[in-house]
Amino acid sequence: MIEAGDLKTGVTLRLDNNIYRVTKTVYNKPGRGKASMQTTLMDLRTGNTVQRIFPSEEKLDNIYVEAEQVQYLYNDGNLLHFMNPQTYDQYEASLELFGDDIHYLSENMELELRMHEGLAIDYKLPTTVTQVIAESDVQVAGDTSGKVLKKAKTANGLEISVPLFVNVGDKVIIDTRDGSYTGRG
C-alpha cells in the first residue's frame, strides 16, 4: 500500500480491478482544507488515460513490478517482440505501450522491460541511442551566426533537428528523454 501523497511518475497501481501507471502527478495543498494529489493514470491494458484526484492520505494498492533486461527483436505490426538474452524467454508488448518511443527502437537494442504477471506493463529506454539519418533538408548557406539546425528523419522514422553538417547516411546520437541531437555516432 502507498499513500496518495507519495505517488510519483512511474508507480504502478491496481484500481477498480485494472492496472494503471502514474504518468503525471500534481500535489495540491490549499491554504485551508486537506491536501490532494491530482494524477494522470494510463490503463496498461488499453492505453487509455484518465484523470483522478486522491486525498493525500488515501491508501492505494501499488503492485510489484519485475524488471528484465531484454533485447528488441522486431515489430510485426500489432506487437513488439523482445527476448531475454540470458534465458531466451520471449515477451510481447503492445504498440500503444511504447507510443512515439517506438521510433527509438532498433533491432538488437537492449532496454529494460517491466513485467507484472507475465504482461509487459512498462519500459525504460537507454538514455541515448544511435541511429542513421535517412532524409534531411538541404543545407542552406547564409546565417550561421547562431546554432543553425535543419530537419532530418532517421531510418526508424524519428524526426529530429540536426546541425547543418549532418548528411544522409550519417550516424547520430539521440537523447531518448527529449529527442534531441547530442552528437555524431
Overall CATH architecture of the largest domain: Roll
* Mean pLDDT across every amino acid position: 88
User: Strands of the largest sheet, in order across it?
Assistant: 1-6-2-3-4-5
Structural domain tally: 3
CATH topology of the largest domain: SH3 type barrels
Rg, Å, rounded: 20 Å
Order of helices and strands: EEEEEEEEEHEEEEEEE
Total number of helices: 1
Question: Roughly how much helix do the residues carry, as a percent range?
Answer: under 10%
Silhouette:
flat
Structural class: mainly beta
Q: How many strands, which pairing sense, and closed or not: the largest β-sheet?
A: 6 strands, antiparallel
Q: What gap, in angstroms, lies between the N and C termini?
A: 44 Å
Fraction of residues in β-strands: over 45%
Low-confidence runs of at least 5 consecutive residues = none
Number of strands: 16
Q: What's the CATH class label of the largest domain?
A: Mainly Beta
Summarize the structure.
With 185 residues, the protein is mainly β. It has one helix spanning 95-98; strands at 2-3, 12-15, 18-28, 36-43, 49-55, 59-62, 66-75, 79-83, 90-94, 110-116, 119-124, 128-136, 149-154, 159-163, 171-175, 180-184.
What does this structure look like?
It is built from one helix and 16 strands. The protein has three domains: 2-62, SH3 type barrels (Roll), CATH 2.30.30; 66-124, Beta Barrel (OB fold (Dihydrolipoamide Acetyltransferase, E2P)); 128-184, OB fold (Dihydrolipoamide Acetyltransferase, E2P) (Beta Barrel), CATH 2.40.50.140. It is flat. It starts with a strand and ends with a strand. The strands form three sheets. It has a six-stranded antiparallel sheet with strand order 1-6-2-3-4-5, with no helix packed on it. The protein has one helix at residues 95-98, and strands at 2-3, 12-15, 18-28, 36-43, 49-55, 59-62, 66-75, 79-83, 90-94, 110-116, 119-124, 128-136, 149-154, 159-163, 171-175, 180-184. With 185 residues, it is mostly beta strands.
